[in-house]
Amino acid sequence: SSPHLLLLPKNPLGSWRAQRVRADGDQWTLPKPSIWAHPGLIVTKGRPVTIWCQASLRADGYYLYKERVPEPFWETSPDSSNKASFPFASMSSHSAGRYQCVYHSRNSWSQRSDFLPLVVTGVYGAPSLSANPGPVVVLGGTVSLSCSSQVIWGSLHLLKEGGADTPQHVELTSHPETYHALFPVGPVNTSHAGTYRCYASPQSYPYMWSQPSDPLHLQVTGEGALSPSPPTSWPHCRPWANVRRVSPIPLSPSDQVSTGSPPSQPSRAPWCSLETA
């Protein structure tokens, strides 16, 4: 087939240049590159973050795509290690979303990388987080962490400080004035101890999160509680793979913790090791 015209920006604010790229299907056959973000996928508003892309073959150039934007978002050249960096000096709501990268080598182009979800926090007011029956739990017991919001409609997200565990997410399926979701934890072992925070995000902008809730410190007591051991039964999963849809539990103005039945258990464990490419 005949070539088509592809507009490629040198950077998000730079001038556009045109490059002719062949539209043949067999041109997009190179292995997809790896993509990751440093220091992480969840970034506070105003803080820097860099998206990295690396090919298994020597690349001539790398291109960053943002979901729902047909043209490449950014173009750059590889460094001496055959990696490309796309630095964001100050994370903003505009930068949040899902990204992919591609590269070209000689006359061929790669397949697109996996999606990289980049989240900005601090966009909206903070939800609240509490523990039921309380933040001190006996080894082998259970506890529910309750995240509630009166301002944002969409999803609630629970994170454990340190980033070792994959976030758990709940997508709410109806729209009360005030809602909350329960994140069941247990049977508890020493690896569950630590500091938790929850966030809220609107339905229309799932990668724009609120400020964090106040920290909740979960303490595990009982025999063996002073000898932490890693969990042995958590499955591997990818970020956002363990989203569950629930109907929110309405709260009365005077009661921030519902006594109703908790939502159904997620199909995956609330915390699991992050599977990397």
Outline the structure in words.
GO terms for molecular function: inhibitory MHC class I receptor activity. This protein has 277 residues and is an all-beta fold. It has two domains: 4-121, Immunoglobulins (Immunoglobulin-like); 128-246, Immunoglobulins (Immunoglobulin-like, Sandwich). Helix content is 0%, strand content 42%. It is built from no helices and 21 strands. The radius of gyration is 22 Å and the shape is elongated.
Give the SSE layout:
Layout: E1 4-9, E2 16-21, E3 28-30, E4 34-38, E5 42-44, E6 49-54, E7 61-66, E8 74-76, E9 83-88, E10 97-105, E11 108-110, E12 116-121, E13 128-132, E14 136-138, E15 143-149, E16 154-160, E17 168-172, E18 179-185, E19 194-202, E20 216-221, E21 243-246
Parallel strand pairs: 3-11, 5-12, 14-20, 17-21
Antiparallel strand pairs: 1-2, 4-6, 6-9, 7-8, 7-10, 10-11, 10-12, 13-15, 15-18, 16-17, 16-19, 19-20
What's the quick description here?
This protein is mainly β and 277 residues long.
Tally of helical runs: 0
- Fraction in beta strands: 35-45%
Alpha-beta classification: mainly beta
Write down how many β-strands occur, each being a DSSP E stretch of 2 or more residues: 21
Can you tag this structure with a few keywords?
277 residues, mainly beta, Immunoglobulin-like, 2 domains, 42% strand, Immunoglobulin domain-containing protein
